[in-house]
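#struct-pred

JT: dropping the chains for the assembly here, can someone run the whole complex?
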Amino acid sequence: MYVVIVGAGQVGRNLAKSLLALGNEVVVVERDSQRIESLTEEIGSCVVKGDGSTVALLEDAGVSRASIVIAATESDETNLAVCQLAKHIFQTPRTMAVVGNPAHAALFQLLGIDVVINRTRIITSQIEEEIGDSTLVHLVSRRGDSMDIVSVSIPPDAAVIGSYLGDLDLPPNSFISLVVKDEGPVLPTSDLSLASGDQLIIVTAPDEEQVLYEILTGIN
Amino acid sequence: MRYLIMGSGDIARHLTDAINLKGSMVIVLNDYRDLKNHSFHNANVIHNVYTGCLMEDLQRAKIATVDGFLACSDDDNRNAMAAQIATQIFHVPLVICHIGNGLKATAYKEMGLDVVSSTVMVADNIFLRLEKS
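RK: done, full complex below.
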């Protein structure tokens, strides 16, 4: 597979190395000479110098034959432009953009970027997960910010302990997909009762997360 | 009428003065660095400083309340993204986007943005004069 990556920061360079190791053909586009020099030492001469958000440079990088274009610069504006130009001018089948500011993620999705990687959200989720086991943790965001997969652990004093899943009054777009008990994962059924320490994997909408969290943990 | 102008170069300054002279309110969004270098003298001008998150900056500059949004900073990508936020998210009635790079300007025009490209306009103008001479 031929992949063009725009931006040789930490994300771009590590991604390039991983994709090359898997046998893909990769070209990285980067403006900064020092980054180019150090990346060339590591992965060879598959680095093109210049502004990857221009049509001419994308053409030089061979975007017209790329299966995927990945925009991984530190600028959301640049990443959007790269993907839009790749899609519109070169008909790239799949575009992926890294988004730094979560507020921009929905816009990218709306404008047709195929995969939006919300960098801040990923880091935040990992920190949330490390903080404690009764916190709502974001596992995956899909379709921009319109759907999340989250994990909620039931604290020892939660009112829902002993309740059956079928009796829970969950928000309309929230669905329990898996319950992880001490003995292992269990598929959710309406007669499954909740216990302290159960971990629930839930598909939900961002605007329902707070209510969902309150229902399951009793914490406002 | 209320207009939001993003940018602080010559185009933004001339537009601010011209719109302001017609009695309309102008909200300006630009870099703090630019703000210190250029002063907009009109009383009917409200300044907002670009902080790095375009969506939040535009909201802070009350983009939802304006009749027109003019994206004319010196960064083509920022202009294009801001214009699309104005169009797609806030449904601003009039959105005009400046894109210097000719090929990029054409691409965004094809994508439906109302684009003005100073590079193309100047080149066309010079070409016309050449033809006339």
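JT: nice. Chain B touches chain A at residues 52-56, 75-78, 80-81, 84-85, 88-89, 101, 103-104, 107-108, 110-111 (CB under 8 Å). Chain B has a mean pLDDT of 87.
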